[in-house]
UniProtKB/TrEMBL annotation:
Entry's family note: Belongs to the MGMT family.
Signal peptide positions (record): none
Alphabetically ordered keywords of this record: DNA damage, DNA repair, Methyltransferase, Transferase
Keyword Nuclease listed: no
Chain intervals with Low complexity compositional bias: 1-22, 32-44
Origin: domain of life: Eukaryota
InterPro entries (UniProt xref): MethylDNA_cys_MeTrfase_AS, MethylDNA_cys_MeTrfase_DNA-bd, MethylDNA_cys_MeTrfase_DNAb, WH-like_DNA-bd_sf
Protein name: Methylated-DNA--protein-cysteine methyltransferase
Domain Methylated-DNA-[protein]-cysteine S-methyltransferase DNA binding per the UniProt entry, residue ranges: 74-165
Length: 183
C-alpha cells in the first residue's frame, strides 16, 4: 500500500511488494515468468497480472502443422499422424504401417519421402521388412549406376535411430521387435 502525506515536500514511501497484503508467495519454478505491473495512484497501489512470457523455446505442435498444411494430401496426413505415435527408441516397418492404414508399403514410403516436417515427424523410425534400413529422404540402400545413392542418407537415418537408443547388428539390421501399437 502506498502512503502519501501532505505537504508535497514530505517524502512518501512505497513499500516493497512483500510488505503488501496482496503479496502472493512465490510459485514453483516453471518455464514461464509472470509479469506484474504496479500502477501508483494518489492513495493506492494496484497490481495487474499480464500474460506470461516463455523463457524456453517451445517445440512446434506437429499435429496442428500437419492438419493445417494445405500441400499435404489426406493420406499423407494419416501417415504423418501415425508416425507421431511411434515412441522414441522404437521403430516400425512400411508393411506394418500400410496394414494399419489399409494401404500399400510403397504408398507409405512415397508419403514418407515427401515428409516436410522431418525429423520432428519421425519418418526415420520406419524400416523395411526384416528390420533393414530401407530408404530415407527418397534414397534407397543400394548405389545407383552413377555412383550416387542412398549411402549418406542411410548413415544419417541409422545415426538418428542410434541416438534414440535403437541397436543394430553387424549387418545393419535393427535389433528388436517393430512397434505395432498404433492408435
Amino acid at each position: 500500500m502506498t502512503t502519501l502525506t501532505a505537504p508535497p515536500t514530505t517524502p512518501f514511501t512505497v513499500p516493497s511488494p512483500r510488505d503488501s497484503p496482496a503479496f502472493f508467495p512465490p510459485t514453483p519454478p516453471s518455464t514461464t515468468t509472470p509479469l506484474l505491473t504496479t500502477t501508483a495512484t494518489d492513495t493506492t497501489t494496484t497490481k495487474r497480472k499480464h500474460s506470461s512470457i516463455s523463457t524456453a523455446p517451445q517445440p512446434p505442435n506437429y499435429k496442428t502443422l500437419i492438419n493445417t498444411s494445405p500441400k499435404i494430401t489426406p493420406f499423407e496426413k494419416e501417415v504423418y499422424h501415425l508416425l507421431l505415435t511411434i515412441p522414441p527408441g522404437s521403430f516400425t516397418t512400411y508393411a506394418l504401417m500400410s496394414t494399419h492404414l489399409k494401404s500399400s508399403p510403397r504408398a507409405v514410403g512415397n508419403a514418407l519421402r515427401k515428409n516436410p516436417f522431418a525429423p520432428g515427424v519421425p519418418c526415420h523410425r520406419v524400416l523395411a521388412t526384416g528390420n533393414s534400413l530401407g530408404g530415407f529422404k527418397g534414397k534407397i540402400s543400394r548405389k545407383s549406376p552413377d555412383g550416387v545413392g542412398g549411402v549418406d542418407t542411410l548413415i544419417e537415418k541409422k545415426e538418428l535411430l542410434r541416438r534414440e537408443g535403437v541397436k543394430f547388428d553387424d549387418k545393419g539390421r535393427a535389433l528388436g521387435t517393430p512397434f505395432r501399437g498404433f492408435k
